[in-house]
Amino acid sequence: MMTDLRNRTVIRYLGGESGHRSFFGGTHSRARIIFLAGSLVFGMVFTPLIGWPALAAAAVSCGVTFLVTAKTHRGSIVDRRRKRARWKKRTRAGTTRFVPYEVGAWDQLQQALTDARTTKDMVARETAVEAAKAVVAMRANPDGSDGLGWLQYGRGEPGIAWHAPVGEQSYLSVTFTVSGQLRGIESASVMARAAHGWGAFLAARAVPSVLVQDVQITTRVLPADTALQEFWVLNNLDPAAPVDAVASYEEVLRLTGNDAMVQRHFVTVNWPLTPVFFDAARKYGDGRDGWRALMRQEIASTKRGLTESKIGRVEVLTARQVAAVLRHQQNPSRPIDFVADVHPNRVGEPAEEEFSAHIVDSIDPLTGLPVRWWHRTAAIRAEALATAARTQLWVLDLLIGKDIQFIRSVSFHLHLVPASEAKVAARQDLVRDTAEALSRREAGQLDTDDTDVHMTAARRRRQDLVSGSQHHGAVWIGFVTISVRSREELARASRQLEETCSTGLGIESLDWLDSYQAAASGTTWPIGRGLVASAPSFSARVYSRLAGKSDKEALT
User: Fold this and answer.
1) Which residues cross the membrane (predicted)?
2) What pTM was estimated for this model as a whole?
3) Is the pLDDT of residue 275 over 50?
């Protein structure tokens, strides 16, 4: 008799799979490896020439390297120095402010800058510096959505965003809204089927022949909105209803909405603009028409896959709806579905930055009053996550925890890796962890539990990727953005978030993305920003070149 595995709770090992084991053992930062290698090379070259002073200098250099690159809960000394240097550079350049682009205002700023530069007294020089900063502050898109445009943004049709961020590969993205896997109390079998369905959706798009590369899952946690209930009452209320009954219902709405938080879920799928994509689009038409025709098929296929993955009701967002979500996340006083005054080409709200905060000054569209929102974003990295067995509910405390009653966005980015590449990485991790355990045992050292846990996780990943399993790999990173009304609330919320992540999620430390918080806010917007995929192995690049773009004689 066969056992139905779908009725079992799905358990996966997370943590320890990023930054695969290095030559020095363990998972060290790239900066430490470079400095150590440089020190060793220096010692090997100069010790025969000048003797023990070179050896001593190399030893001191290695010791200093270990000190300045040592990981703490506040990052390493090198990381903190890098953040301070970046902040000083940005402050001098004037990129810590953002003003939405307007033609008339832009012309005025350019004229003011020209006038200030033509005058050669000291006061005019200072004026020219300020005018240059004002010009830099006015941009078409905020830092979190740099290079965002649209391939398709008509009314009533799926919004296809076209991204061309500086220094990165261009890609197209489409955002879907989903109702979620679990609604209320569900059995373990329902949870298991949902987990298997989501895994099958990702695995089907990790195949090298598929054009999809990245998937982003975003959950927006915000206060409950009773506007729909109030609208229903307005249209269905009996005019003869007693005043006390109407007042009682209003009291019920007020009590149910007080301190209640709801979740809105989004799935963003990215298609990189590669030669393979261009070749596939050429079979559907010329130029951008071929792109749109290909994307219509890709969107329909993705929607079917999401529906079959037991992720709830699935809808495709238009460009105006995506822009409305982005503006809501910057200014939570705007309802998330408010699209009346939204244009897809205007997605930014006026903002400025502090070292640890992204501050948005805008208007509440419902009251017309000015509002100010403070945002701060942190990254959840695999190396900071305790390696342990987890179910798909491991982030539940972050989504519905009672201790964190502030508005927040939680986003996880997945870069899909074909099984052939993921299998090699898992095998390397297992071999090096096993070698480290053996070397400690032979040296008579007491082995730590960390090595055993890492070995268990690597062995489990290798078993998941065994031939015929239809599993594939993924590189992942998570981000959390918190939004509050004041600096003091932001400080309290940051501590509450750190405590919740440490005690409930097993996250040893959050990486606060200070010194560039405005750009960091974009990592939790549903536009696919925030993940730089690791470079494929040499063999993977060779096989990709051998495969070519397509077979010219074939239909596909």
Assistant:
1) 31-50
2) 0.85
3) yes
